[in-house]
Amino acid sequence: MNLKSITLLLTAAAVPVFAGPLGYALCQTGCNGLAVACYAGAGFTFGVALPAAPPVLLACNSALGGCMAACAVVALTPTL
């Protein structure tokens, strides 16, 4: 059996693998770190409730939501 045949056989037998909970958690942690930086850059503290959210914080929250959604896609997409 030559190398090409072995590679083809192993590729065909490969089982899809998901990033799993650890990969998802690491991605979420990165998103939260970016959100904290976004809040700090705007002069606010992440996690402190305000009576009304300024537009810059709404933008930070929107970016956080997009990042978390991307994490879900990455974590749930099978890879070989």
UniProtKB/TrEMBL annotation:
Residues 1-19 form the signal peptide. Keywords: Signal. It comes from the Eukaryota. This is Unplaced genomic scaffold CY34scaffold_432, whole genome shotgun sequence. It comes from Suillus luteus UH-Slu-Lm8-n1.
